[in-house]
Amino acid sequence: MRIASSSIFAASVFNIDNLQANMYDLQNQLSTGRRVLTPADDPIAAAQSLDLGQGKSLLKQFDVSINNATSSLGAEENSLKQMVNLLTSIQSSVIQAGSSAMSPTAENAISQQLQASYKQLLSLANGTDQYGKYLFSGFKGDTQPFAEMALGQVNYQGDSGQRMMQVSQTTTVAISDSGADFLVNVPNGNGYFATGGQPTNTGTAMITTGMVSDPQAWANTNNTGDYRIAFHVVPDPTTPTQSMTNYDIINNDPSSVNYNRSMIDGYDYNTQQPVGGRTDTALNPNSFPVKYTDGGQISLSQGAGQGYPLIPGWNFGAKVSISGSPADGDAFTIQSSRNQDVFSVLGDMISATQNTKITPATQAQFQTQIGYTVQYLQNAMKSVLQVQTAVGARMNQLKSIQGTQSDISLQYSKQISTLMDVDYAKGISDFTQNQMTLNAAMKSFSQVQNLTLFQYIN
Predict the structure, then answer these.
(1) CB atoms < 10 A from the CB of 239, how many?
(2) Cα 149–150–153 angle (5° rounding)?
(3) Which of 58, 60, 288, 393 is within CB 3.0–4.6 Å of 232 for a Cys-Cys bond?
(4) Among 320, 326, 321, residue whose Cα is nearest residue 365
């Protein structure tokens, strides 16, 4: 078979060009570390790598969101921690204010300390994160949550929502809280009811915060949750220098059909029925139904020997204790717990410490208010701690999500490397083989190109 020299030349040049092109590609792969330099090198690997790269980029954006959320929650947690410490300090100051050994100078110092703590708490409540967003205004990150009108009068201007941030494809995390949850809507009293003295009391009696030993009994539908313990004091007929002090437990709920009626014997203070039911006589010198014992417990239930109660067999599972000497007409209230803001309670306490008219009666009222405030501060601390616990749980959740996404991102990187990066052992081997082939092709071509008949014609 005859092969033209031009065909040999063309085939040799074509093969050498291909080998040089392969050499160029292999050299680029080895110098860049990438096997797929263009989608044409491996379309399937290039497409898979693009999808993996987009997933990795999304994870990187989520990582930035997680860091931002962690910073915001860290600022919130720090503020909540300071609030707990501050409320603990305020509680200690309030208890100290009740000491009978306090001098006027010391009492004034405590009053000033309470005012400083009040302002510090207000400042913490209006705290911001690293972006200048208010931590405790709910959705309204640009609105100052707490605005003071006067001492103890602070308006909440935020809402009840939470700002959310997406930290993964399926998860959003709250990065703020509503200050109303733990600084405004805080239950007073023991969680079931709150006790207090009438401002008109002139005796030296004081009431405790009380307790509920049977929550199910307190939930009885007959329980209005609103009562007053009224005292009647008369001279003791047998010992005129002493007094006879009795009390009555009266329904104090204006919306109840039994309003102003005695729980103990059903006497109606509105209609004064039955006639003579509260008239002192020689045989009954103190017409109120129960004898008072200083420091004794008063139960919201039917007592022994009380044969005609308003509600037969009534027992609401609660009790209080009153100590001291009540005056005739003094009364103490028991009201179902209601939400109250911490600033109004502190404002009332500060005002009480500034009262310069100290009498046995006002001192007794002051001690009652101290008990009320100490119990309320305990409730407020509990509310703050609940939010702090929730914030800590969110931060742990973010840490867990970040760790998981970091592992996924690393896996994506490994898959991209497998698809796109060069295998140096194979790449060097291919390069060497291609180089040997190219050298052989070029050497053989140099010899073939000199094969002509003219070399043999003399």
Answers:
(1) 9
(2) 75
(3) 288
(4) 326
Residue 397 CA to residue 385 CA, distance in Å, equals 18
DSSP string, 231-295: EEEEE-SS-TTSEEEEEEEEE--TTSTTTTBBTTT--BTTTTBSTTTT---SSSSS-SSEE--TT
Alpha carbon of 308 to those of 190, 276, 311: distances in Å?
30, 16, 8
Instruction: Return the sign of the alpha-carbon dihedral for residues 107, 110, 114, 119.
Output: positive
Radius of gyration of the chain (CA): 43
137-141, 142-146, 238-242: which has the minimum mean pLDDT? 238-242
In this predicted model, what pLDDT tens digit does every residue of 209-267 receive, in sequence order? 999 999 999 999 999 999 999 999 999 998 888 999 999 999 999 999 999 999 999 99
Q: C-alpha 61: how far from its chain's center?
A: 27
Compute how many other C-beta atoms are within 10 angstroms of the C-beta atom of residue 433.
12
Question: 298 in helix, strand or coil?
Answer: strand
Reported pTM: 0.80
The string of pLDDT tens digits covering residues 278-305 is: 999 989 999 999 999 999 999 999 988 8
Nearest C-alpha neighbor of 68 from the set 6, 147, 141, 154: 141
Residues 6+ apart with CB under 8 A from 87: 121, 342, 377, 380, 381, 384
Q: How many CB atoms lie within 10 A of CB 432?
A: 11
99, with CB counted inside 10 A (0-12, 13-18, 19+), is exposed
